[in-house]
Amino acid sequence: MSHLLPVELPKAYRLLNHGPTVLVSSAAHGQRNIMAAAWAMPLDFDPPKVLVVVDRNTLTRELMEASGVFALQAPSTEQAQLTMDVGTCSGRDGDKFSQLAIASHVGSVIDVPLADGCLAYLECRIIDEPHNQQRYDLFIGEVVAARADSRAFSQGRWHFEGDAPRSLHYVAGGSFFATGEAFSVNGSADGE
Amino acid sequence: MSHLLPVELPKAYRLLNHGPTVLVSSAAHGQRNIMAAAWAMPLDFDPPKVLVVVDRNTLTRELMEASGVFALQAPSTEQAQLTMDVGTCSGRDGDKFSQLAIASHVGSVIDVPLADGCLAYLECRIIDEPHNQQRYDLFIGEVVAARADSRAFSQGRWHFEGDAPRSLHYVAGGSFFATGEAFSVNGSADGE
Fold this sequence. Notes:
alpha+beta; Pnp Oxidase, Chain A; 8-stranded antiparallel β-sheet; 4 helices; 15% helix; Flavoredoxin (chains A, B)
């Protein structure tokens, strides 16, 4: 994991700003899980907060509510099949990390298993909002640690070049878009 | 606008599922406005709901709260400068549609001005959640009408090919990613 470098927290929103599909990791009472979520995005800059929609019938939901924490991961184009696979089986039918042979490491702050090889990791503590959780399956997390693969994200920006792995954007039925070409228009100079 | 076709509401989430940056239109008491938002995503399938973060200091916020409605638009790569421009000036300093010469049409159900030439339009009624709005600048909308450019979205899927306009993913400081190449992995056959 030598390419992983910390991302300063006020820039952590940049990891999700372009709308990538994520993986959600969770763990509690001796169980662990990982699922895919197309519905995740930043909610605030500093302290950074994120939103993620997690269906009430999932094991991930149960583990998140038991532990009060979760982690988001931005998988790469090389992990598209993995993203699809963890999104189409249930952790209730057996440990996905074992069944799918997913190499993992533990978060730097949060005790959840993270899939090796992702482009970015955001470790989050749940800001408890029972109404959102119960009515909309919507969770708010405060990002307490963020790291990214320095080959793809540096100086607060994603840099995807040529055939190097890119982030993913889920469509449906196993179809994805890769994050595409970067381009600029006239904008503010401060990078905001 | 002859290429615009209705999108059936249970498929409306597909317009935002891949995480594009959007424009937000609003109107109330004789004023109208349009702004950019990187933080918008689906919240539910059917009836379709969306989330969008709208800062409390914006005119858009004031108009949304006065009218109870808004519309999201998915701009194309050809509209990146427009997206940047409406995101960096305030409607409080004058009508953006006039100042930026934005051609527009009125929503099919909601009375807000929509920028011509976008790839998709989602017209929404606000589901009032005062706590989310006040604490997190977070709005929930129920999508009551959806349309898309049939050259880019048909049969419930985006189809971006070659040099045709694509949707946008905002980075920062005037930088964007275009939606990239489509690819598939082994997945569920039902398209879900």
